[in-house]
Design brief:
Helices cover 45% and strands 16% of the residues. The chain is of the alpha/beta class. It folds into five domains: 196 residues, Rossmann fold (3-Layer(aba) Sandwich); 127 residues, P-loop containing nucleotide triphosphate hydrolases (Rossmann fold, 3-Layer(aba) Sandwich), CATH 3.40.50.300; 104 residues, Winged helix-like DNA-binding domain superfamily/Winged helix DNA-binding domain (Arc Repressor Mutant, subunit A), CATH 1.10.10.10; 76 residues, Arc Repressor Mutant, subunit A; 63 residues, Arc Repressor Mutant, subunit A. α12 links the parallel β12 and β13. α14 packs across α16. It starts with a helix and ends with a strand.
Length: 635
Amino acid sequence: MSSIHSIVKEYWGYDTFRPLQAEIITAVLEGKDVLALLPTGGGKSICFQVPALAKDGICLVISPLIALIKDQVENLKNKGINTLAIYSGMPFLEIKKTLQNAAYGNYKFLYVSPERLETALFLDYLPALNINLIAVDEAHCISQWGYDFRPAYLNIAKIREQIPTVPVLALTASATKNVQEDICEKLLFTNAAQSFQQSFARPNLSYSVFNVTSKQTKLLTILKNVSGSGIVYCKSRKHTKEIADLLKLHALNADFYHAGLSNDERNTKQENWIKNKTRIICCTNAFGMGIDKPDVRVVVHYDVPDCLENYYQEAGRCGRDGKRAYAVLLYNDKEITTLLEQPTIKFPDEDTVKNVYIHLMNHLQVPSGIGEGQSFDFDLSTFSASFKIDILTATYCIKILEQENVLSCPETFFKPSTLVFATDKNSLENFEKTNPVFEPLIKGLLRSYEGIFDFPSTIYETQLAKFIKMDVSTVKKQLVHLHQNRLIVYTPQKDKPQIYLVQNRMYNDSFKLNLVDYFIRKTNYENRIAATLNYIENTIDCRSKLIGRYFNDTLITNCQICDNCINTTADELSPEDVEKITRELLSLAKTTSVTIKNIRMLLPIYKKNQLWKVLRFLQKEEELIISNQGDISVP
């Protein structure tokens, strides 16, 4: 234990561990498989980074998010810890060099996306990697019964079969009991495995839900009443900009963020928010993963989420410093109707999926029987318009094809720039003499990238610009000029959606979905929506307890600070109040047409919860009858 304490002190500066971290780390060091459920901001990464540093060898970290991989790799490097990463878009030679370094160099972490695990190159190097731990981040992605199933995660079991003595640490912030069991089964956990679940309670986080006619007005009120940094989650990219513009019109310092922006734009916006140059960031759920900003005071969901897993993670990004923070969800009745329609929309019939698949393959110009392993630039709106397919239908059909392991469609695909010289050295020297303005760039390339005359090398324009002391925009313009003059072959960084084909294109008459699993996933989705609606519409139970029960955390007590807890305390009734309301209800029910909808209008001096309490009591005592249509009458 002294070893792990010295490690966390040396590299992170912490004197103590957060709850359950030490227990998880100890179990991993004992060689046990471990499932760890730690809420957002609960310090999941330390649970695998510390034991990996305490042991000989390298830790294999599997993560689905390129941005998160890059962020963690950068953080570890800044701590002086040698770390490598392999993700989609890296050139073959760079991947090979990375694997060689992992096998024979002094490195402690190798981050990979799950798709990398099944490649022949990775499997060739696997025996040479001295892996001391397999860390599976976002482990719920391995379960098709969960909310974010990714088939590539199933490859982890194949890796385990080749290195069966290496322990696995599966980490997630949100998984129901069924998903937890599925994670352990799919990762081939042994009987000696241990599970750790931190409480889902956030004692400093006040949850509240508002049914409002004007979300804009309510949002402005919230952000003016709660000072400090904030996040506003929106469902569409268009919405993020509209809301940010609205806030700016009312003198609130706001900006917007979504995955459709360039890499540089996203980095700049994120950095400005982290440094408090921007107060409010209006964003899609593409924002927030891997960001540890402790002083966020408010998270507002401007649109209704479709599952508590996402809501809990996103809401949990506020108040990590332990001070009071507010998680607010805004909705209207129309959204509830829309949410109930989602299963039919998100799970179209087999013929619709087949039709989208055929059009997609035609759009990408992939002949039947080939295509496996190929990547294609892909613009969803262009595809949908070209084939007159509703854009939502296209989106959900592609998601189904991804879950069926037919293709992969990460929202954003990062492919660094590559460059190779396309001329001989004598011609290059002659060009430099007649065009001296290009000499610093050419010399910088030759000095920075070994072998750039022989094969394409990954280059980073920003680093190159710093090296030759030139503006990065000038560097990019000069590279384009050299490419146009056929002195180099320059492929600028790709930062756009891609389609990656996991399988060859199927012949039209052989297309088939696994309908059994498909309908189970649909049923599970319907159950998640039901749980979300219960959270939204329940005005009695503690919201922290509602979330805890969903994740099988039965020890949570009433938080006393959510809207329901506050209202329940405020709505407590004396025996005299109960007697008075009872008399008035019985009198109305005997003489007037009374319904659930008009009861408050008829008795406006009482609060809604007070009326409900007495109504429920009288119904239980069979003094009143409430029909399925909401009519109230006496027996």
